[in-house]
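Known limitations

Files may contain more than one protein. Parsers should not assume a single record per file. Below, a two-record file is shown to illustrate correct handling: read the sequence, read the C-alpha cell line, then continue until end of file.
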Amino acid sequence: MTTTPEIPPTQEFPPTLREVMLRGRWIGVLCACLVVAGVFAFLGQWQLERAIDTDPPPAGITEEVRPLADVLEPGEYLAEPLVGQRVETSGTWVGGDFLVVSSRFNDGDGADEGTSGYWVTGQLRVADRTSIAVALGWAPDRESADAAVADLDRNAAGADAEITGRIISDEGAALPPADEPFALSKMSPAMLLGQWHDVEQLSMYRPYLASVDAPDGLVDIVSPAPHELSSVNWLNVFYAIEWAVFAGFAFYIWYRLAKDRWQLEVEEFEERAAAAS
C-alpha cells in the first residue's frame, strides 16, 4: 500500500525537516512522547529518592548488644541494616537437636583459614513454643564436632543458657548428598527445623544466631563486624539513570520517525522532479 505524499505536487522546493516536525501530526506524536518521557522521569526520580538514605544507621550500631526481642520478631525477615547485629537472649536447649553443619570456614583463632570445618548448632527455646537456631562453635573435623554434640546432649540438654552473638540471615537450603539425606551444608534454620524435635505449632526466628563464645571442645566462631552500609544505593542510582535514558529515547523515536518521513517526501519530490524533466 503506497502512502499519499503530504507535499503538493506543484511545490517548487522539498519540505525542510523543521516544516515536517511542525505539522499537526508530528506535534501530536511529540505530545505523546512528552507523556511517556514524563512517566519515565517520574520513575527515575522515584528510584533516585530511594537511592540515597537520608537517615543511615549510626556507625558501629551493630556492635551495641541489644535484646533479641527488641531487634526481631519470630517469623520476620532480617532487614539489611540489622544483619550482623549483636544481640543477647536466654532460653533452654532442646535435647537431641544439636546438629552438625559442614562446609564452615573460620578464619583466625587458631583455625586454618583454608580448611573447611564444621559448626555445631542447637535449638534454643527462648519462649513458650518459640525457638531460634544457634551456631555454638566451630570444629576442624567431623570427629570433634560429633564429640561436642554428644557432650552437649549429655550436659546441656534442658539446661538454661544465656547467649550473646550476631544475628545472621538464613543461608538458604541445599540438597544433601543421596547417600546422606540428613547432611547439612548450609546454615538454614528452615532445614534445621526439619530435623528438630517437638516442633508442633512452633514459632521460629528466620535468621540464626552465631554465638560469640563456644562451649568446651569447640572453637569460637569468628564473626567480624559487618561493613558499614553506604548511604547510597548504587543499584537504584543505576535504575534512575536507565529511566532517564528511556525518557531521552522517547524523544529520539519521535525525531527518527519525523526524519524518516521527511526523507521519504524529499525522495518523492526528487522523483517527480526527475519525471517532469
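...continuing to the second record:
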Amino acid sequence: MIFNTIKPKKISTQIAEQIRSSIMSADFGPGERLPPERELAELFGVSRPSVREALNILAAAGLVESHQGGGTIVKSLVEISAGNPLSDIIKCERERAMDVIEVRKCMEASTAYYAALRALPEDMRKLETIVAEMGENLESGKPSLELDAHFHIVVAQATHNVVWLHLMQSIFDAMKQFQMSVWRAVYITADDHRTLYLQHRSVLEAIREKQPERARDEMMAHLGFAERRSSVYVSQNKE
C-alpha cells in the first residue's frame, strides 16, 4: 500500500474554512460585513496577510465580496453575478411582483413555522427589539419599512437554515424598490400602520410561545394582507 505524505494546511486555508463554516451556519448572513482584517487577525491570532489571503480564497469561491473602504460583504448563495434579473423584471412588469409575493407567502409561512421550533433566545431578543421599535414608531407616527423588512429576515435567520435565509435575502433585495413604493402609496393611515404592527406582534408571539402552526397561520394572514394591498397598488399604476 502506498501512502501520501501528510501536509499541514496553510494558515490562510484554515482561516478560510472557519469563516466559510460561519457563513454556512448563518452566523454571517447575506449582505453582512465580516469583521475588519485587523480584528480578524486578532481573533485568529495570525498576521493580516494571512487573513487577506483567506478572504481572497473566499472571494474566489464567490462567498464574499470586498469593497474599497466598505469592508468584506457576505454574498448571497443564490445571487446571480450578472445583476438581478428578477428585480429588473419587477421594474418592467409590476404584475410579476404579485408572483413573487405568492412565492413569499409559501416560503415565509414555512420560515415562521420552523422559527417557532428552532428560535434561540438571541433570535427572540432581536425579534422583540424590532417589534418594540415598530411600536415606538407607531406612537410617534413614523413608518417602519426598514424594521418590517428586517423582521422577516430575522425570522428566516431563526430557522437556522442557511438556505431559507439566503433565498429570503435575495427575494427581498429584488423586491426592495417595489415594496418601498407600496409603503408610500398604500400604507397611509394610522390604522394601516397599526394593523401591520399588530400582525408582526402576532407572529412574534406565536414564535415566542413555540407554536409553529399558529406562527405559520399568523404569517399567512399578514402576507395575505400585504398581497391585497400590493394588488391595489399594481392596479392603480398600470400603464
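Parsers that stop after the first record will miss the second one. For reference, the second record is described as follows. The CA atoms of residues 146 and 180 lie 9 Å apart.
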